[in-house]
Amino acid sequence: MFGVIPKKIWGRMISSDDNNLIPMVANLFLLKADGKNILFDTGLGDVISEKERKIYAATGETNIEGGLKKLGIAPENIDYVFLSHLHTDHSGGAVVETGNGLKPRFPNATHIVQRDEWEDAINPDERTAAVYIPERLRVLESAGLLELIDGDKELLPGIKAVKTGGHTRGHQAFEATSDGTTAIYYADIVPSEHHIRVPFVPSTDLFPMDTMKVKRELLKRLLSENIVIAFDHDIEIGLGRVRAEGHKTIVDKVE
User: Fold this and answer.
1) For the chain, how far is it from start to end, CA to CA, in angstroms?
2) Sheet containing 110-114: order of strands
3) Within a 10 A sphere around the Cβ of 78, how many other Cβ atoms?
4) pLDDT for 123-141, tens place per residue?
5) Strand 146-149 and strand 110-114: pairing?
6) Quick one: which of 149, 139, 80 has its CA closest to 111?
7) How high is the pLDDT of residue 132?
8) Is residue 31 within 8 Å of residue 40, measured between CB atoms?
9) What's the rounded Cα separation, in Å, for the pair 149 and 164?
10) Is the pTM of this model over 0.85?
């Protein structure tokens, strides 16, 4: 998760086990806007194989439907699913197993993906085959629930997709602005508070220099504008604000 950064440095920030695995979660975010329910990514879900459980060191069960239920929302009430990218830990929950095979978990939702991301996910190579599972993704396409976009696009008033690249060729972020505040979700460009630092880039990023470029500009905005950032894998901070304290960059938790 920290790429070329030595463990002597990142180990001061977060603990790891004997295999150098660190604790992580898949934080999911729901946005209510313009009478619509909008879900950002879907986590691992519950259709992953035992091999995938080992790859991700996944424990427990998905809380995607239970979490929505606490908000009074059923899967059928989701209008849009914005997928930052199609790695299993971000898209696996988009489908569910039935007695008749896989089906979309959110049958009434438009699933928004960058076209580049879709093309790469449907045609994985030797490096990406473990994280792109085409047969699951095709379920969304067959159901007519897939919308492919190219680059930055306003999706709803005040809500836009921003193509970042970096982590994958078609990785995208989402920004929503209302009443003078902007909430942003940059997914695996900034997976945790620790990754606010520009050189802290996971080794899984296919284009790390692009990731650093995006983070460099993003950090300027986070320090100067009224922005709340959502972290997809942080175990302590789901939503935070960034501030400077001397030469340090600090993230404060936001409820």
Assistant:
1) 26
2) 29-33, 36-40, 80-82, 110-114, 146-149
3) 22
4) 999 999 999 999 999 999 9
5) parallel
6) 80
7) 96
8) yes
9) 13
10) yes
Q: For position 168, what pLDDT does the model report?
A: 97
The amino acid present at 41, given as its one-letter code, is D
Cβ atoms within 10 Å of 16's Cβ, excluding its own: 13
pLDDT at 99 exceeding the cut of 90: no
Classify each residue of 225-251 as buried b or exposed e, where b means 16 or more C-beta atoms within 10 Å of its C-beta: eebbbbbbbbeebbbbbbeeeeeebeb
CA–CA separation, 159 and 153 (whole Å) = 9
- Angle at 13 (CA atoms; ends 29, 214), nearest 5 degrees: 55
Q: How confident is the model at residue 100 (pLDDT cuts 50, 70, 90)?
A: confident
Q: Which residue ranges form the domains of the chain, and what is each CATH number?
A: 7-253 (3.60.15.10)
Tokens at 150, concatenated = 């190219």
The tokens of 160 are what? Answer: 């836009």
